[in-house]
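Lab meeting tomorrow. Look over both lines:
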Amino acid sequence: MSAKHFVIVVGAGPAGLAVANAMSKQGHEVVVLNRDIKFGGLAEYGIFPNKHKLRGGLRKGYWEILTRSNVHYFYHFNLLPGFSTRSFDMGQRVAVIGIGDVMVDIAHWLSSRKRVAEVHVIVRRGPAERKYNPKEIRAVCAYIDQESLDKEFARVGARMEAVGQSPEKVRSEMREEFTKCEPPESQTQMRFHFLSSPKRILTDAQNRVTGLELEDTKLEVKGADTAAVGLKTYYSLPCDSVVFAVGDRVDEAVGLPYKNGLFVTNPHRTQNDPDDSLFQAYDEAAGSILPGVFLCGWARKASEGLVGVAKRDGEWCSEVVTRYLADKQPPTASELSQKLQQLETLLKGRQPDLVRADDLIALSQMEQQEGQRRDIEEFKFPTSEDMLAAIRKNKPCAKVPASR
């Protein structure tokens, strides 16, 4: 296409990179701003460490996008607390809230890496509403206490039947899912607590976790789905730590219109497919959209923590952005160059370590070399500062590694 626009994508996860892919293929000048040094988002940091082949395949596609001549990648800086570098004492009894793939990864880490005694999975709804991928559960199903699971079905069976669910059928389906379990690496016991809503974390005088207060729930049919409704009866589960394997809020500090954990989108539907309004940022106070500002992936709908779902959302958003740009006057080549230079100057002023794609190529090569030296499948520098130090030390960048 001859009309080249200047498109800024904030976030280099699956959704953001799907937008960068589509927009750059159309010939637009695309800038990708990322808060992490490495790109990939969920695809880089949300996939269990031993899934090298899966991450490698995703990286290969992302490298191809980010090394295009009209795509400019910049690591800005991450203002989030450095929790990833802190050491947490999980104890021996860990409560994990949620029943999706994030729960599976956390349970996998707790059982195979931390080797805790017990993992308790807390589920607000019932076993029929489980969200994990049946293939993913194979990583932890060997740890599941089957006798405890049978007792749990007996405990919640009547509440399942009240909404037309068959406990026997659901239990049989779960048994089928547990037939190809990976060999266990510890004695960890994994137990489920269905129709239980976390209400309060219990602590001792030193503010250390001692348990989790749970409220019994029942199911109510809501259209084609079910919802959990509290029964006002409570029980306590002793535990040493609590992990929330769910996430349902965006970062309201970004500055976009925000309400109830989400950025606000246009409430006025259009006739387009995909519907433009679902991706348009909207200012309720002014009663109007924010022209040229679009939301996709986690920014549009938090908790959709699946790479494929986020990618699809980015592709739909790209169609909406394309329609928006169709009647907009494109900048001249000189104006495009000036905008890019202004942005780079601004970012340099705020963050001296401005990491680009070339720097990541060099970093990737250094990590590969260190992995070979240690004779391990994959090596990663553990902290952002370690990565930045390596990049500073090796500023001249080499060619894109073959393994990308």
Notes: Confidence is low (pLDDT under 50) at residues 397-404. The radius of gyration is 24 Å. The chain has two domains: 6-80+263-355, 90-239.
